[in-house]
Design goal:
By secondary structure, this protein is mainly β. It has five helices and 49 strands. The strands form six sheets. The chain has a 30-stranded antiparallel sheet that branches. It has a six-stranded mixed sheet with strand order 8-9-14-15-12-13. A hairpin with a 2-residue loop joins β12 and β13.
């Protein structure tokens, strides 16, 4: 607190000794805030200082020059406006300044990303060159200078600091499928933060992305995208259609995904070591698998006035999966034997989401939402071992899981001024879960009551933005045998200092407890092999993470760079461990470690639009320290990625490569999957895009997943690889057509479905 007080005092002192010129920039066509407009102070035609308007069209320039000045305001698509600033030493409020729309250009001519740091977030306006060279949203996000964000074009995923971010599209919480269906040309701006807002802090998400689409008229839109490998059973699709008329909008989407991989291999070397027992195993398996997922969404949105919005969304997610394991084992106790393990599952999750928002005025708004979900999940697994003497053993894990839940939230936002805002809300989740373990006829019932109340305050003080949030998480669960109560605080503090138009420094602290899931707490032991019994742990403690970050960034014209330094102190972090039960049996379950310290330093560099060329490169060094009762481990790892691209007319050539890093959890060391892809894309018209990708180039083993375990009870080394992916050629085709588009919706808080589960799958 002392450091914070000193920082605010110095900032206030510096601000008071300078002259502040501020105001708001609006469009004269509809009085909508103009975001990203460049505001340049000049004297005798010479630039002396400047700023960029934020998400509310506001700008603020601090200068020590008391002479008469000229403020020049401009943005592509608007005519440039000049305002005369009279001589004087006091602060000057210019009020509302209106820009006149200029001649509409047939093609975007912006050549570099327009970026600002506003209210602790990075706001990016994608450049025309980046949009032109990106067929999908994933391809666009590869190119953006967003530190900590990684876009994987092979798996079509985005992560922030290795975790899944909260994604909003026009303020609506959206899935990765929704994100993938957004066309880059429809994106107006992107708000990004590595810090998860208080409203979403209890979901386990990492980072925040809010995509605002361009405002358009009545009409409809159709988006079709698909890809398939030439010689591999690998198919993904994304189909979306919407129609908007007056106050109503209808949309439907379908996002199937299918895999059928047969060349999947595991080589595993492990030992089970007890007080009076030891067995060494060498296993070589072929593990083919397939899955087919079919998520469908239908949404109706009604906006009877500019102050009120209602929406109803129906989701149904249906999927099947099957895995088989054929292998041989060299066992130092039982000799050599073969195994045939098989698992399958089917699930269907329908949900209904009802949402309403009302804006009382420009400063006050309230939202309410209710989401009801049903979950049906059937899981079958049989592990069979065939011994040389003709005998065999089978271990069966068959379970049917049924879940019903109701999620409710109410949220209120109040803006005291353009510098101060307050938000608060309450969320509640209640659920009923019944698991039927068929072999034992056990039918435990688990219920949860999860409450989260939060408040956050944002304050602009000169060039410094301070954001504070806190919340209380109250979680009650019970089953047939016991019950647990958890009460924890979640808090975040962030300070962002815009030094000038080139430099920004952000510092943050975050306290984020992780309450055990129902599956981790479920007490139902199941034997999965001749030596191994798996179970949940009803005595798990809450894991607590204290994270500190410092992130200076520099941007100049077509170049940007960010350094990120972070330290995380983990208490009672959860990892999987084995203990010896006796009689040649070992128990596998989640337990708490005594410590987990993580140190991370990263550097990202980006340059773009140099004769059609661009590059985005990042490198990260991580150091992990874990410890428990009588043991410690540490690990240092280097990872990174790069994306290079070149665009010329309708052609785009790009190369993406990932440098996989290692991570340490308890005794376990894993390595991220490898990946690279060379892509050629051709856009014959504004409706069509055809692409050809060569993935895992010159790599016969394809995707690789090496791992190790340093446990004194279960030391092991595992090598998994999917050779089907090696040198894989993938064709993708995209078709889009629109005759108008969607209107903007408002901020919402919840995802549209509840995918929680009490089922522990082995």
């Amino acid at each position: 607190m002392r450091l914070l007080f000193i920082t605010l005092f110095i900032t206030s002192f510096l601000s008071s000794s300078a002259r502040e010129i501020y105001g708001r920039v609006l469009s004269d066509a509809d009085s909508v805030a103009v975001v990203g407009a460049e505001c340049r102070l000049k004297i005798d035609g010479r630039y002396i200082d400047g700023a960029v308007t934020d998400v509310d069209g506001l700008f603020r320039i601090t200068t020590k020059d008391n002479n008469a000045l000229v403020l020049e305001i401009g943005l592509v698509g608007f005519s440039t406006t000049e305002v005369v600033v009279k001589q004087g030493g006091g602060n000057l409020n210019l009020g509302d300044i209106y820009l006149t729309s200029g001649v509409e250009l047939s093609e975007v001519t912006v050549t570099a990303n327009s970026m600002i740091d506003a209210r602790g977030r990075t706001v990016v306006y994608p450049s025309g060159s980046d949009v032109k060279s990106s067929s999908t949203s994933i391809r666009l996000f590869e190119k953006l200078p967003l530190d900590g964000l990684s876009a994987n074009p092979v798996n079509r995923t985005i992560t922030v600091d290795g975790g899944t971010p909260v994604i909003l599209i026009d303020g609506v919480p959206s899935s990765l499928d929704d994100f993938q269906a957004v066309s880059p040309k429809d994106i107006e701006r992107i708000e990004y933060s590595r810090i998860t807002p208080a409203r979403y802090a209890d979901r386990g998400a990492t980072g925040f992305i809010n995509i605002t689409l361009k405002k358009r008229n009545d009409g409809g839109e159709v988006y079709l995208w698909g890809r398939s490998a030439v010689a591999t059973a690998f198919v993904d699709g994304n189909l979306r259609a919407s129609y908007h008329q007056g106050p109503s909008q209808f949309s439907v989407s379908y996002n199937p995904s299918w895999r059928n991989y047969k060349k999947v291999f595991d080589d595993n070397f492990q030992s089970y070591i007890g007080d009076d027992f030891r067995v060494d195993l060498e296993e070589h398996d072929r593990n083919p698998f397939n899955y087919f997922s079919n998520p469908v969404q239908m949404r109706y949105t009604l906006s009877p006035s500019s102050h009120t919005l209602f929406s109803a969304t129906f989701n149904v997610s249906e999927g099947t999966n099957k895995r088989r394991y054929y292998g041989s084992t060299s066992d130092s106790v039982l000799g050599d034997y073969s195994n045939h393990n098989e698992s399958s599952g089917s699930n269907i999750t329908p949900s209904l989401d009802l949402y309403v928002r009302h804006d009382f005025n420009d400063k006050n708004s309230i939202e309410a939402q209710m989401v009801g979900t049903l979950g049906f999940d059937d899981y079958r697994r049989t592990n069979r071992y065939f011994y040389p003497d003709g005998t065999d053993n089978s271990y069966v894990m068959d379970v049917d899981s049924r879940r019903r839940s109701l999620i409710s939230e109410i949220s209120y936002t109040h803006s005291f001024s353009d510098r101060t805002s307050l938000s608060a809300g309450y969320q509640n989740t209640v659920s009923h879960n019944r698991n039927r373990y068929i072999t034992s006829e056990s039918r435990p019932v688990l219920t949860e009551n999860n409450n989260y109340v939060y408040a956050s305050l944002g304050q602009q003080i000169g060039p410094v933005y301070l954001w504070l949030s806190t919340g209380a998480k109250l979680f009650w669960i019970r089953n047939d045998h016991n019950k647990r109560h958890f009460i924890r605080n979640l808090s975040t503090a962030q300070l962002s200092w815009n030094i000038d138009s080139k430099w920004n420094v952000t510092g943050a602290f975050q306290y984020s407890p992780s309450i055990p899931t129902l599956a981790q707490l479920t007490d139902n032991p199941q034997q999965t092999s001749p030596y191994l019994v798996s179970n949940g742990n009803p005595n798990l403690k809450v894991a607590e993470l204290f994270t500190y970050r410092l992130m200076p960034s520099f941007r100049y014209k077509k170049f940007s760079s960010t350094i990120s330094l972070s330290y995380t102190n983990g208490r009672n972090s959860v990892f999987n461990d084995l203990v010896y039960l006796g009689d040649g049996k070992f128990l596998s379950q989640s337990v708490n470690s005594r410590r987990l310290n993580t140190y991370v330093g990263s550097l990202s560099l980006r340059v773009s639009d140099i004769a059609g060329f661009g590059a985005n490169v990042a490198v990260q060094v991580s150091h992990f320290e874990t410890g428990g009762e009588g043991w410690t481990h540490d690990l240092t790892s280097v990872c990174g990625y790069m994306i290079l691209w070149w665009n010329k007319g309708p052609w785009t050539l790009s190369y993406w490569r990932k440098i996989p890093g290692k991570y340490l959890s308890g005794h376990y060391v894993g390595k991220d999957e490898n990946g690279d892809a060379l892509s050629v894309e051709f856009r014959p018209s504004k409706h069509w895009n055809i692409g050809l990708d060569w993935m895992y180039m010159f790599d016969k083993k394809g995707t690789r997943y090496p791992s190790w375990n340093y446990s004194s009870v279960n030391p092991s080394a595992n090598r998994r690889n999917i050779t089907h992916n090696g040198n894989m050629v993938v064709i993708n085709i995209q078709y889009t057509v629109d005759f108008g588009s969607i209107f903007r919706t408002s901020n919402r808080s919840l995802n549209n479905s509840d995918y929680g589960s009490s089922l522990l799958k082995m």
